[in-house]
Prior knowledge:
By secondary structure, the chain is an all-alpha fold. The protein has a single domain (5-197), classed as Hypothetical protein af1432. Helix content is 66%, strand content 2%. The chain contains nine helices and two strands; from the N terminus they run H-E-E-H-H-H-H-H-H-H-H. It has helices at residues 5-19, 31-46, 52-59, 77-102, 106-116, 125-148, 155-168, 171-177, 189-197; strands spanning 25-26, 29-30. Strands 1-2 form a two-stranded antiparallel ribbon.
Amino acid sequence: xxxxxxxxxxxxxxxxxxxxxxxxxxxxxxxxxxxxxxxxxxxxxxxxxxxxxxxxxxxxxxxxxxxxxxxxxxxxxxxxxxxxxxxxxxxxxxxxxxxxxxxxxxxxxxxxxxxxxxxxxxxxxxxxxxxxxxxxxxxxxxxxxxxxxxxxxxxxxxxxxxxxxxxxxxxxxxxxxxxxxxxxxxxxxxxxxxxxxx
Length: 198
């Protein structure tokens, strides 16, 4: 239930305007703008009655991500994890600032920031919803390109990646992924099936 439709849509527009500045392109659109729309499309398919908090959080998941490049952190495994953790806070704070501009109160802003910041996954339903949607979007839109970009990975590595992704998802999201309601990359279906059945 969305309390104030005008404020909600204004906030989505502010998120989209921020992401429209992304200089990186994907399918002829700013990359993070397209990503945000894919996240909203997926939550609409997976959880059409999702809370206002969850709907805002999924749209802000990667907000202005290109402004914090990976190479601003050490190019090590530890550096990668530090970058990801830093991004969670950056995205949450950026979303919160734009929500405040649109007129949301501190309580609602904090709820969205908690979800975007990936706090309380598995225990906070809105954080888990964002995690589910992010993984469903990854599987449908990005897994195949990621696989093609890593020709050096062997089957064991791919099974590990798929299992790790699968393990982050709720039982409902796992069932949805196998329901035929998302497009699985056809060439990877045997690998996905093997990963989740073993």
